Amino acid sequence: MTKHQKRLSVPKSWPVERKTETFTVKADAGPHGEAGVPLLIVLRDVLEYADSRKEARYALNQDNVLINGKAVSDEERPVGMFDILAFTEREEYYRVFPGKGGRLALTPIDEESAGSKLGKIVNKQHIPGGEVQLTLHDGQTLTVDEDSEYGGNDSIVVANDDDEIVAHFPYQEGELVTAVAGAHAGDIGRIEEIQITPGSSENNVIVEQDDGDGFETVEEYVVVIDENFTGDDE
What we know:
Blueprint: E1 4-6, E2 23-25, E3 37-38, H1 39-46, H2 53-60, E4 65-67, E5 70-71, E6 78-79, E7 84-87, E8 92-98, E9 104-108, E10 116-127, E11 131-136, E12 141-145, E13 155-159, E14 165-169, E15 176-179, E16 188-195, E17 204-208, E18 215-218, E19 222-224
Antiparallel strand pairs: 1-2, 3-6, 4-5, 4-7, 7-8, 8-9, 10-11, 10-13, 11-12, 13-14, 15-16, 15-19, 16-17, 17-18
């Protein structure tokens, strides 16, 4: 299987120039599916911490680069929405956040904020033993009590060290959201209305913004967030 990916065909979320060269690195299988950006691209093309794959491999072998609290040694490991990147030697911490146009961007955060990550609940199912399994947008699974209040499309904040849920943001009208895909990717506002569509069609969400514009998008494209996740407090 080829280790290269044509730049012209990479997902829109990848922060790469498409016409400078023919190929770029291909992401390994892992979190975030096809939208995951190889860590090498973040290190080399976004942060410019490495000039080559060889330099990136050397840096990763020092165990100073963490994703969601865990040291990473694979330069092709996918990085995606709401992941936490920590460069311990530099004392630098970033949250991967959807930018304008759908490209993933890095938001600087402090060390305390880097101890947990946000996840959108994309599936909820009962499992043997009287517990419920939650599946997050990046593929992570968690088990919670059957009578827990977590619902589909809710967002939770999960501690990186022990997977404890430390915050919960319900998916409901009035909540702060960001669009992570589509024409309004990167836009932030509050849910004004959730329009339930009969049948198998996607529900629509109308979002109001402070500037009065607002936008409408499908339910799949919005993620409930807290003000601390916008970067406005940095």
